[in-house]
Each structure stands twice: as structure tokens, then as C-alpha cells.
Design a protein that fits this description.
Helix content is 30%, strand content 17%. By secondary structure, it is an alpha+beta fold.
Length: 187
């Protein structure tokens, strides 16, 4: 096992680790608040815009104390940064393929897990049917192997858990879900 005992190989680590330079931009000290496999979906113009917004926000908040006027000035910039990250997650979701196996590389809280109904598209919380599930049922955790099933018209992504392949419920992620970043293609 490599790097911390998680069984990651070097290729997977390179995919997640943020480089010092990308598209001609120096990224040291910049927090995208998103994993690198999602940020890789950005165009050069989007990264430049994100860095401009990041610097504007940083400068506005560093002048004086954290006054409400400074924070109010940053709201539109922050909203645009959120929109850029959401766009990158959408692009990452469209690249998911049925021919590929995926690994979930992060633990997910049970209240964040969504399942699909047995008979059609949609998603609901695991709390809705907890009395119907076996004791200790955990549909997805770190190192779970997933197989991409399909996407519905709304863009929701459906996955089979290969360890629970006989389960009538598919694991569902919304089209811009923050947990999409944790779904890594297996080589």
C-alpha cells in the first residue's frame, strides 16, 4: 500500500493533487474549495476569472477589520465563484461513463446519501426507508467500488454498489452534487 495505507497508487494521487502551475497560472496559496479532479474541468478563462475574484475578495476582506460593509461587497464575487465550481462539477458529471468502474475515495455521512426508488428515477434520503434496510446497511463509504448505471433527464447520476449488487436501490448523486468529486475512475 502506498501513501498512508489507503491503497492509492501514484497515478490516482497525481489526479487529485493540485499542481503549483496550471494553464500558466501560479496556484500556490489559492484555495479552490474543490478537489483538483473537478478544477481540471475549468477552461483557462474560468481559472483566470476565479483567481481574479479570489484576489478581489481577499483584498476587500484584508482592508481593516471584518466590517459588514467589506463582507457585503464580497457577496457577488463569492456567488460567482460558487457558480464556477458548480459548472465544473456539472462538466465532471457529464464525463461519467457506463463502461467505467469508479471508486468512492471519501467517507460520506449517512444523512448525505441519497437512494433511488425501486421503480423509477428520483432520489430520497436513506432515512425514509431505514426500517426496511438491514442493520448496518451503508450504501457507500471510502473505497466502495461503483458502476455507473445511467443519468436521468434532470441530470441525476445513478450508481450500483458492486458490494451490494442485489440491492433494489441505486445510489444517486444530483448533477452538481459536491460528492461527485469523490468518485474516481479506476484504472
Amino acid at each position: 500500500m502506498a501513501k498512508g495505507g489507503y491503497g492509492w497508487n501514484n497515478k490516482e494521487l497525481r489526479m487529485i493533487k493540485k499542481p503549483k502551475y496550471h494553464e500558466g497560472y501560479h496556484l500556490v496559496g489559492i484555495s479552490f474549495n474543490e478537489r483538483w479532479n473537478i478544477v481540471q474541468q475549468a477552461t483557462k478563462q474560468e481559472i483566470g476569472r476565479y483567481l481574479d475574484l479570489h484576489n478581489l475578495r481577499k483584498d476587500a476582506l484584508s482592508t481593516g477589520k471584518w466590517k459588514w460593509e467589506n463582507r457585503k461587497k464580497c457577496i457577488p464575487w463569492h456567488a460567482e465563484m460558487i457558480n464556477l465550481r458548480k459548472t465544473w462539477r456539472l462538466r465532471y458529471g457529464t464525463k461519467l461513463s457506463q463502461d467505467q468502474l469508479y471508486r468512492f475515495d471519501r467517507n460520506i455521512a449517512h444523512y448525505d446519501i441519497k437512494l433511488s426508488p425501486k421503480t423509477g428515477p428520483g432520489c430520497f434520503s436513506i432515512w425514509s426507508i431505514r426500517d426496511q434496510l438491514p442493520n448496518g446497511y451503508v450504501p457507500v463509504q471510502r473505497n466502495t467500488i461503483l458502476h455507473y448505471s445511467h443519468a436521468d433527464e434532470l441530470g441525476n447520476h445513478y450508481f450500483y454498489n458492486l458490494e451490494l449488487i442485489d440491492s433494489p436501490y441505486l445510489i444517486t448523486f444530483k448533477r452538481d452534487d459536491k460528492h461527485l468529486a469523490s468518485i474516481i475512475p479506476l484504472e
